[in-house]
Amino acid sequence: QVQLVESGGGLVQSGGSMRLSCTPSRFTLRYYLIAWFRQAPGKEREGVSCISYSTSTTAYADSVKGRFTISRDSAEKAVYLQMSSLKPEDTAVYYCAIVSTCNTLDVPQHYSWGQGTQVTVSS
Prior knowledge:
This protein is mainly β. The chain has no helices and 10 strands. A 6-stranded mixed beta sheet has the order 2-10-9-4-5-6, with no helix packed on it. It is globular and about 40 Å long. It starts with a strand and ends with a strand.
């Protein structure tokens, strides 16, 4: 299984922007569907966004629609999550994962998660 590494998190003020990156430990992300998930303290992990390998399909959780944009670079070396108009409730550890479909944002079971990247939005 291709291991994914998340990066780009940090501390930002409410209303600010941030871009997260998801990169493979080796090879490329070509032909993989990639999704972002997040887990806030005391809450279950939830799906945020997903992108197909052709970029023809993207999906977003209702809570981030219109504020977050998922994309992948042309060299298939990374998938990005551009986050804008951030809110304190977006505070969470963000993870990316290879998924089998973007029709849902269900959290994959028995997945070997990376360390994630912490996003903290101050009010």
